[in-house]
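For practice. Supply one:
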Amino acid sequence: MKTAFLFPGQGAQTVGMGADVAAAFPAAAELFAKANEIVGFDLRAVCFEGPSERLNSTTMSQPAIFVTSAALLEILRTQEPTQDLTADVTAGLSLGEYTALYAAGVINFEDALLLVKKRGGAMQAAADATEGGMVSLIGLDEEKVRQLCDEATQGELLEAVNFNCPGQIVVSGTRSACARAAALAEKYGAIKAVPLEVAGAFHTEMMSSAAETLREALSQCHIAEPSPAKTLANISADYYDSADGVADGLARQLTSPILWQKCMERLLAEGVERFYEIGPGRVLTGLMRRIHRKTRVVNVSSIESVQKLLGKT
């Protein structure tokens, strides 16, 4: 039976994440302590105690989600009931792709954390230099979303960038174009339009300066050849097949659409039957329910879910 480990992206963070598992499992606590040493500030306290305004900032949420996801993975790796649980493939939503590559042994913990920290800072800087936003459109197919974007753009940037699941597509662009898109949603038959609380127009050319900063950081990072576990790239729904391809894909990801639905459909078509969402929240579990209702995802996000998986409840 093929197994996939899935890792969440930005937006999954909540104050208190990781605190319960770190208190119960020394392996998780040690990883949070190691993360503090690497980043040079008390990231653990921000995860465990907030405040939410600080945790939710782009610069903080990205390393926080990565470390919390890695800590939950570490528990699975070190506890006897799950030590033999390994992934045939890994995938992560946007930011979560770094955790997926870490889980696959392609990037080590320190390098991945430093890259994620650099990524968050670069994205925030690019957002500060532009006037961008994102809107989630619920209930429209890809063709309708593209028609809506054509009408709303009015010479400004507006693109479909997150293809998460059937009926949920996120558009990204200038703030005024996003506002027009939200206003036009009902005309095109959307159930609703939800402006996202993000700093800028992620996954568009408005993040090109961040992509260049990240590309430079990736050139200084050791990336192993992707083997034996396979990791799917968000921007292509293809497997990474070289270290150079990983570096290129991670940099291009900042200015390219995220094809999450296609990634999951590929895994299902290739016979993956067991899925584990490892990290804070239940976003990917919910998306899979929309992509393929009969596929069950084991959610590993809290002390309760970990104990259930370990057979301790």
User: Anything to note?
Assistant: The two ends are 25 Å apart (CA to CA). The chain has a mean pLDDT of 96. The chain has 14 helices and nine strands.
